[in-house]
Amino acid sequence: MKLLKVDTLEQAREKLLAQITWDMGKTEKIPVEKSGGRILACDVLAESPLPYFPRATVDGYGVRAADTQGAGESIPVFLEVKEEVEIGTVPSGEITGGTCAYVPTGGMIPRGADAMVMVEYTEPFDTSHIAVYSSVPSGAGILQIGEDVEKDQIILTRGTRLGAAQIGALAGNGIREAEVYKPLKVTILSTGDELTEPGCPLKPGCIYDINTPALARMGEEMGFEIVHTQVLPDREAVIEQALRQGLRSSDLIVISGGSSQGKKDMTSRILDRISNPGVFTHGLALKPGKPTILGVDKESESVLMGLPGHPGAALVVFRLLAGWLERQRTGCPEKPRVPAVMESNVPAAPGKDTILMVRLLPGEGGVYTARPVLGKSGLMRTLTGSDGFVRIPLGKEGLKTGETVTAELL
Amino acid sequence: MKLLKVDTLEQAREKLLAQITWDMGKTEKIPVEKSGGRILACDVLAESPLPYFPRATVDGYGVRAADTQGAGESIPVFLEVKEEVEIGTVPSGEITGGTCAYVPTGGMIPRGADAMVMVEYTEPFDTSHIAVYSSVPSGAGILQIGEDVEKDQIILTRGTRLGAAQIGALAGNGIREAEVYKPLKVTILSTGDELTEPGCPLKPGCIYDINTPALARMGEEMGFEIVHTQVLPDREAVIEQALRQGLRSSDLIVISGGSSQGKKDMTSRILDRISNPGVFTHGLALKPGKPTILGVDKESESVLMGLPGHPGAALVVFRLLAGWLERQRTGCPEKPRVPAVMESNVPAAPGKDTILMVRLLPGEGGVYTARPVLGKSGLMRTLTGSDGFVRIPLGKEGLKTGETVTAELL
User: CA nearest B160: which of B45, B41, B47, B46?
Assistant: First the structure.
């Protein structure tokens, strides 16, 4: 058993970035309407101003503002209605002194008009005239050319996750394809003679595999493409073959195994044999998460991640390393964490970063209370009973009742 | 133009629930590994205890705790090693006084043993004996039968969204299929002679359609199945036909149109004609969101939702109504909102609920500052520049600088 120095989470992250000497930022163009949840790989500029014509923001009459000066509730001004502008069309004439045109919300303001009078402040007077009971300033009720977006203005920046609003903005600018990052291809392997695949009968002493489906789902949530999952026995040759296959097909290979020392040594040995330069992190100063291994293979341009066997630890470390890597790769910022107030004191693990699972209880004024979810390593309950987790940084003795923390949602 | 009383958001929600007299909670059974993001339609009970055998949580030796009494760093106790238990197998013998068995993490504890001594506190003595340098209490290093989950205990409740941890819990309990709610089938229609579909040339005065792709994406994010989207001209017969088709194929039909009064009246008239009992909410006391229409058709068991034409208003109202309806239907709780401190004073709209778009800026101690994103109705910028929105309830005059609010993320 080799004794190796563990890395802090930050050290491991820095090493990982330094080792990735290839381009992880491959992109593809996809139709905007299929780009939901994807991340923009470049800034998007407006090809034309928005709106590209002066546009009514109310139902009413396009007027020359000067013509309405002095109009009031009991002193109407009378204007001749020259036309009814239909939405989606160009007004046929120009508004000159003493005239106006009906324009619906969203319609084009005719030349000559510089303000809208809302229909509520007008009344038909005769077949060709209206009475106006309000004076309006120039510009009222009009969205000017480029007022929303100017031509060549950046409307969305690289690293933006495309949600409903962003897809609307792209569509509104007439953009049909979005250049987004290709999802990382991920292989997920779980090792252990005791692991049983779903649907198979359970032999005494064996357990159903948790890590493969749980890590696969978390990978999907982080935007990865899961290309392969497999449960493997504790046989070196079989594991090596699966890892080599992973190198060929994936950008990231995740292997989680038993937490026994023998297995950890075996995984590390195989990873070192099949990859170059191989494993550079042999453990994390993180609780839970110590038995974490990180390596790269420059030839196949793959990242290798050995995760702890305990499902809770495996999921947290996967988020802290692969989720972080994905943000580095794409420039997509972290989702807002939820601030919460600690319900009780919790000590930290000395010399390590400590991850504390928490349940968020709604509190006064919308501020959450963070209730620690404690339990022995490997309990399912701590996983399903938590809304998220809090990180206690190395060097901090613990968290105090009433202290504000920020929880990363699971 | 009929003058109709508007409803508050809460009134509209109550009316909607009261009008839905059919079962919206249809369910389906799907494989657990494909159930990510879906919502459980029933409580899930454990079919067997977890673990179902006493399980080692450390690498070491299964012992009778009484045999280790008195052992210490300089006073070892010597025990005979009867066997090496392999993971995934049943120990062959029983531990009697003065004996022990090697058990790896995750392995089954042999009968007779009631504690684990970690390998770090032992040393090989001769070929068949070890020296133990620490005394352990009964139960140390062992997860007892049912300690994580007891048989028939509820492991996940109805309304739970299935994330990575939940999928892991189902898999670990040997559950292969999850009973989840069927997604609501949704038709999304946008109306307007000015609306141009992506890729078509823009005629002067026309604009690209925003609402269809934006609402479709938001619907997907809320868990709906978008069965049809269509952009329609302002022609009553065409709109009526599309709505009738929607009634046949969908649980929810969303139509957003121009904000001009004529169009709103037309939409309301058509909805009333094709549905029974028809429209019951003719406007919301909500800013933005006034031109919102709600109805149901009991024969086809469909909900009808007329949304404002402005994309920002349409998206917010869709979330506030359809997102709320989905939570009612499935019992899935709202995702945690993010508490934040107002950066400036903002007045509310009198007599209405006010929705304020905000940007969340990271602040001291992880608490966000909420910066209001203001702008004329219908600006794209207010949409893409916001992280979420804050609701100022009717009757509240506004928000004050420094006041804590909770933002619903977009």
Answer: B41
* Residues in chain B closer than 8 A to A176 (CB atoms): 198-199
Write out pLDDT tens, residues A277-322: 999 999 999 999 999 999 999 999 999 999 999 999 999 999 999 9
Find tokens 């491959």 and name the residue.
A26
Q: What is the pLDDT of residues A187-236, one digit of tens each?
A: 999 999 999 998 899 999 999 999 999 999 999 999 999 999 999 999 99
| Global pTM value | 0.95
User: What local confidence, expressed as pLDDT, does residue A302 receive?
Assistant: 98
pLDDT tens digits, one per residue of A50-72: 999 999 999 999 999 999 999 99
Contact B108 A163 (CB under 8 A): no
H runs (alpha helix) in A33-99? none
* Per-position DSSP letters for A90-156, written without gaps between them: --SS---TTEEEEE-TTPBPPTT--EEEEGGGEEEEETTEEEE-S---TTTTEE-TTSSB-TT-EEE
Q: With contact defined as beta carbons under 8 Å apart, do B378 and A143 qualify?
A: yes
Among residues B8, B5, B1, the alpha carbon closest in space to that of B351 is found at: B8
Which B residues, 50 through 69, put their C-beta within 8 Å of a C-beta on chain A?
50-51, 53, 57, 59
More reliable by pLDDT, A123 or B366 = A123
Write down the residue that tokens 């953009």 correspond to. A175
Whether A380 sits inside 8 A of B50 (CB atoms) is yes
pLDDT in tens, A78-92: 999 999 999 999 999
d(CA A334, CA A355): 18
Task: Search chain B and give the residue with CA nearest A150.
Answer: B381
Q: Do A405 and B174 touch (CB under 8 A)?
A: no
Rounded to whole angstroms, how far apart are CA atoms B278 and B28?
Answer: 30
Angle at which helix A211-221 crosses helix B164-172, to 10 degrees, equals 160
Cα B66–chain centre separation: 50
Q: Which residues of A touch B336 (CB under 8 A)?
A: 338, 360, 368, 387, 409
Average pLDDT over all residues of chain A: 95
User: What phi, psi does A350 have (nearest 5°)?
Assistant: -65, 140
At residue B1, does pLDDT exceed 50?
A: no
Q: Chain B, 349-408: which have a CB under 8 Å from a chain A CB?
A: 360, 365-368, 376-381, 383-384, 386-387, 404-406
Cβ neighbours of B88 (radius 10 Å): 22
The CB-side HSE value for B286 (13 A sphere, CA atoms) comes to 30
Across the interface, which of A168, A205, A215 has its CB nearest the CB of B383? A168
Q: Is the pLDDT of residue A123 over 50?
A: yes
Find the CB nearest B171 among A148, A209, A377: A209
Q: Of B163, B162, B168, whose CA–CA distance to B148 is shortest?
A: B168
Q: A339 touching B, CB under 8 A? A: yes
How far apart are the C-alpha atoms of A122 and A130, rounded to whole Å?
A: 7
Block residue for tokens 């028809």: B278
As for the ipTM of the complex, it is 0.95
Say yes or no for a CB contact (<8 Å) between A404 and B339.
Answer: no
Type of residue at B53: F
Please, which residues 94-133 of chain B have a Cβ atom closer than 8 Å to chain A?
A: 104-108, 119
CA dihedral B292, B372, A155, B258 (to 10 degrees): 20
CB contact under 8 A, A107 and B205: yes
Using alpha carbons, list the distances in angstroms from residue B284 to A119, B8, B221. 21, 6, 24
CB atoms inside a 10 Å sphere around CB B261: 15
Is the minimum CB–CB distance between B200 and chain A shorter than 8 Å?
no
Residues 264-303 of A with CB under 8 A from B: none
Q: Is A247 on the interface with B (CB under 8 A)?
A: no
